[in-house]
TrEMBL record:
It holds the Pfam family Rho_N. GO terms for biological process: DNA-templated transcription termination. Residues 82-101 have a biased composition (Polar residues). This is Rho termination factor N-terminal domain-containing protein. Residues 99-130 form the Rho termination factor-like N-terminal domain. Residues 1-36, 49-80, 102-132 have a biased composition (Basic and acidic residues). Residues 1-132 are annotated as: Disordered.
Length: 132
């Protein structure tokens, strides 16, 4: 694809770029600069040309199950009104049951506590699988 060709963009991305470009031109930005800024904005927001299926990284079934379990727990806490993490859902992850929310270092610490063999060479997804 030659540099600057827009054929790989979805219709929605092209409409968005046109709208942004028009907005810049209304503010007095030259047409060529407005177009460049518009496409830069679209690229930043959507990651460039046409995408199918998001980032391309599939979550494992174990990770999906942990996320569903965590979501169900948080929903039940919200319904009952006695959430231990009230007001600090992201700052305190100790109540979270989802391993995918933890950093690799936090997973390594949990693996060390459970004496998981080979943990030092494991990637994050492998640690999640080993701890599940």
């Amino acid at each position: 694809m030659p540099r600057g060709e827009k054929s790989k963009y979805t219709d929605k991305q092209q409409r968005k770029a046109e709208h942004i470009e028009d907005s810049y031109e209304e503010r007095g930005v030259p047409a060529k600069e407005a177009e460049a800024r518009a496409w830069a904005t679209v690229n930043k927001q959507s990651g460039g040309g046409e995408r199918k299926g998001g980032s391309g990284q599939e979550k494992s079934e174990t990770a999906k199950r942990a996320d569903r379990k965590d979501s169900a727990h948080r929903a039940a806490e919200a319904r009952s009104g006695d959430s231990p993490n009230k007001g600090s859902a992201r700052s305190d992850r100790s109540g979270s049951t989802s391993l995918t929310d933890l950093t690799r270092d936090e997973l390594m610490h949990k693996a060390q506590e459970r004496d998981v063999h080979g943990r030092s060479k494991m990637r994050k997804d492998e640690l999640i699988k080993a701890l599940s």
